[in-house]
Amino acid sequence: MLKSEDVSPLQLRENIFAQFEERIESMFGPEDWVSVIGATYTGSFSIINGLIILSIIVSGIGITNTLLISTMERIREIAMMRAVGVTRRQIIGMILLEGFGIGLAATVIGTLFGIVVSLVSSFTPASRAAKTKLSETLRYE
């Protein structure tokens, strides 16, 4: 099979694949591996993005539930505040500020917890790397 100047290596491989009806792995070039690895990473990141969106939805529902229960328990307090002249806008601002405080506290605690989990998880590989014999590492290729 001859390759002309206007045919790319990828098109040439596809023509060979179409002619013999089976893929030959040894014909994979760098661009093929880049596309395979890129597709794998894209799939992995879409799963992670889905999990992040799911966790945001769950945390939003949790904050909404907490604030609804809190306001239902304080309905008498809110009525008293309205009776002494607190406006509806101020009550809305108070509850929004409470929700912001819950979200901020959860973010700080979650970040600190993530840092702790990362450090604990890194301890085993770090200790294993430190215990590796020098002669063994110099022989490793």
Automatic annotation (TrEMBL):
Keywords: Cell membrane, Membrane, Transmembrane, Transmembrane helix. Residues 51-121 form the ABC3 transporter permease C-terminal domain. Its main location: membrane. Signal peptide: none annotated. InterPro entries: ABC3_permease_C (IPR003838), Macrolide_Exporter_MacB (IPR050250). It is a multi-pass membrane protein. It is found in: Cell membrane. One of its GO terms (cellular component) is plasma membrane. GO terms for molecular function: transmembrane transporter activity. Pfam families: FtsX. It comes from the Bacteria. The chain crosses the membrane at residues 47-70, 91-117. Belongs to the ABC-4 integral membrane protein family. This is Peptide ABC transporter permease. It comes from Neobacillus bataviensis LMG 21833.
